[in-house]
Backbone:
């Protein structure tokens, strides 16, 4: 298990490094911030973060939010990537409170429309390549976590 988890964390860290200057510049003044409920936090994200010391914020219920999100998608109420007005329970004064290299998979892989527009083309290409790698790492990690029969 250590190898797929190490690869997954390494790709997450590389994405965070790549996005760092963009988020510092654009997120504080974003007109449509993405860390809003209902969030895309899955059980694997929570399990990994808690195993690495994160405490669940009081009142957080990401499982119910995922159900709500699914229902809203089915009714075509929310476009992909946009949440509502209420900040995510995991959002702290200095950003996401998940471990830096174990943020929720779907949050980590999200390239927002402002990134698409503002990131220099070379950086955007690298980001998309890293997202594909993250998808692959996550698949392998979930395979490794699946109980053997
Ligand atoms: S939508 Fe983009 S710019 Fe806005 S808060 Fe999210 S990552 Fe930052
Ligand atoms: S879990 Fe973190 S990255 Fe994801 S929406 Fe919440 S604060 Fe943002």
Residues:
């Amino acid at each position: 298990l250590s190898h797929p988890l190490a690869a997954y964390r390494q790709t997450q860290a590389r994405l965070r490094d790549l996005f760092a200057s963009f988020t510092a510049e654009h997120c504080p003044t974003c007109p449509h911030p993405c860390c809003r409920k209902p969030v895309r936090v899955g059980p694997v994200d929570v399990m990994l973060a808690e195993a690495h010391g994160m405490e669940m914020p009081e009142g957080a219920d990401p499982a119910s939010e995922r159900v709500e999100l699914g229902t809203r998608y089915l009714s075509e109420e929310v476009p992909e990537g946009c949440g509502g007005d209420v900040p995510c329970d995991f959002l702290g004064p200095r950003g996401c409170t998940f471990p830096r290299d174990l943020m929720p998979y779907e949050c980590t892989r999200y390239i927002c429309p402002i990134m698409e527009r503002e990131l220099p083309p070379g950086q955007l290409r690298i980001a998309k390549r890293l997202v594909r790698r993250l998808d692959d790492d996550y698949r392998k990690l979930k395979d490794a976590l699946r109980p053997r029969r």
